[in-house]
Description:
alpha+beta
Amino acid sequence: MLRAFFALPLVFALFACAPIVRTHGNMVETDRLQQVNPGVSRQADVAALLGTPTAEGTFNPNEWYYVGQTTEKTAFMAPEVVKRSVVRISFNPADGTVAKVEQMDESSGQYVEVVDRTTPTAGHNLGVIEQVIGNVGRFSPPTK
């Protein structure tokens, strides 16, 4: 009985260290993607096979994007991207058939450095005291 008492926390600790796997977006399966045939498949066929796209092209509605990623998180650590996939399907505007299918992964991406700057604005920056004093007398008493 004493061994079970000490073994129980050890079992819970091992389960807590198991990675949590999550999939976000639409991870297109390879066998379904192979069923999309350029020149033959239409938009309705692609939607039936792969589902609705994650996004459509901003400037070209004849481009569909299927974006997805799988992450793993262990205990309190930050999640780590295990797999990322982007599939772009272009359609012919004339007849709505598939023109081109492109599949991209992590190696196709580019790192974008985030710039932490602020845009200066015209005007006077008021301090806390100026803001408090500037509001004195601006409020009228409530009317009944």
